[in-house]
Amino acid sequence: MRLHPAVVGAAEEVLREVLRFTGPADVIISRYFREHPKLGSRERNAIAEGVYAVLRNKLAYASFAESGYGPAMRRLALLGLADAAGVDNLGSLSAEETEWLQRIAQIDRASLPVTLRANLPQWLFDKLVARDGEAATLELADALNRPAPLDLRVNALKWKREDVIAELAKAPIVCEPTPYAPLGIRVRKKPALQNLPLFKEGAIEVQDEGSQLLTHILGAKRGEMVVDFCAGAGGKTLGIGAAMRNTGRLYAFDVSEKRLSKLKPRLARSGLSNVHPVLIAHENDAKVKRLASKIDRVLVDAPCSGLGTLRRNPDMKWRQTPESIVELNAKQVSILASAARLLKPGGRLVYATCSLLDEENEAVAQQFLATHEGFTLVPMKDVLLEQKIALEMQDYLKLSPHLHHTDGFFAAVFERKK
Ligand SMILES: C[S@@+](CC[C@H](N)C(=O)[O-])C[C@H]1O[C@@H](n2cnc3c(N)ncnc32)[C@H](O)[C@@H]1O
C-alpha cells in the first residue's frame, strides 16, 4: 500500500534537524511525531526507518545524492525512504526521481570504495583498520549498519523462558531463545509489546542479549549488597535485582535524575522491592563514600561512546569525535576508581562498556590493575564457566555484532584481594 505523499516532506524536515547532530536522533524524531499527531503509524514507521537508513549509510547516500533531481535533502530523504519502505510505496515522486532511485538500487555496493562501504567516520574507520585490518572492519561495519533484532529478557522472578515463548506464540509473535543469555528471547519482527499483558505485568523487558550477559557476569546472589553504579533507566538493575531473587540490597546510582526516574515505573512492573535508586552528584559523592568496603558486587556500566550500539543508535558514530573519547575516558577511569572503594575483601567489580574501542575498554582495565594493587583480574573464561554461559573468551568479554549478533560490549571482572 502506498504511503501518504506527506512522508517525503516530513522525512526531509526530520533529516534536516537530525543531521545537525545537536541531540540524539530518537529524541528529535519523537518530538517531531508529537508535534505532528496526524501522521499515521505506517508513515511514522517509514519516516523513522528512513532517517535511520540515512544515518547508517550517510557516506554512500551523500555520494549517490550527487546525481539526481531536486534539493539535496530531498534526495537523501528519498534514498532513506526507498530503503525503509521500497520505491514502489512512495507516492508523489516525479518520473525522474523514480527512475533515479531505481538506478541507485542497481548499484553493486561491493564495488564502492571501502570507506563508502563502511559508512564510518574516517577517524573511526582508520582506528579499526589499524587494529583489525580492512576485511574484519568491513564485516564489523556491515553488521553495525544493519538494524538490531528485538531481544527480550524474561523476569525470572515471575516467569520461565519457555512459558513466555509459548505465551508470545499465541499473540502470535514468532520468537526463539537467544543463543547465550539464559533468560533472553529473540523476536523475529518488531511487534508493539507495550499492550501485551506479559509486558504490563513485568514478565518481559526489552534488552539486548549482550546487555543481559553483563548481568550474569556480575553474578549477584541472594542476600548480597550490590551497587549498579551507572544504573541509568535500570536496564541492568532489573536483571540484577531478579538474579538476587528480590533479596539483599541493590543500590541503583546515577547522576541523571531524568534517567533514574524512568527506572521507577519499570521497578513497579517488575515486582522488585530490593532496589534503592540513589541520585548522586558525581562519582565521589558522600552517598557513595558511606558504603565504602560494604559491598559484595559493583557493576560499573560506564558512560561511553556507545559505538557498540550503532545498530540502534546510528547517529552516535557521527556525534562522537576523538576528543569526546578522551573526555569519556577520564570519566571512566575516575568512576572505576571510586566504585572500587565500595568493595569488601573478596568482592567483585565489573567494568563494562558498549564501546568497541580499546581505549575505553582494555586500556581502562589495564590501567586499573596497574594502579590498584588490591585487585586481581578474574579471567572472563572462568566467569563464563561459573555462569554456564557457552561463549569462548579469554581475559575479557568482547561481544561484537558480526560475531555474536549482539550489540558490541566489553567487560572485565576484578576481585578485591582478601
Ligand atoms: C551506559 S549508561 C548506563 C545504562 C544502564 N546501566 C542500563 O543498563 O540501562 C551510563 C550511565 O552513566 C551515568 N553516569 C554518568 N556519569 C556518572 C557518574 N559520575 N556516576 C554515576 N553515573 C554516571 C549516565 O547518566 C548514564 O545513565
UniProtKB/TrEMBL annotation:
Catalytic residues (positions): 354 (nucleophile)
Coiled-coil region(s):
none
The record's keywords, sorted A to Z, are: Methyltransferase, RNA-binding, S-adenosyl-L-methionine, Transferase
**What GO molecular-function term can you cite, just one?**
RNA binding
Kindly list the positions annotated as binding S-adenosyl-L-methionine. Answer: 254, 301
The residue ranges of the SAM-dependent MTase RsmB/NOP-type domain are 140-417
Q: What is one Gene Ontology biological process annotated in the Swiss-Prot or TrEMBL record?
A: RNA methylation
PROSITE patterns given in the database record: SAM_MT_RSMB_NOP
The Swiss-Prot or TrEMBL record describes its family as follows: Belongs to the class I-like SAM-binding methyltransferase superfamily. RsmB/NOP family.
PANTHER family documented for this protein: NOP2 YEAST -RELATED NOL1/NOP2/FMU SUN DOMAIN-CONTAINING, RIBOSOMAL RNA SMALL SUBUNIT METHYLTRANSFERASE B-RELATED
Official protein name in the record? RsmB/NOP family class I SAM-dependent RNA methyltransferase
Species: Noviherbaspirillum saxi
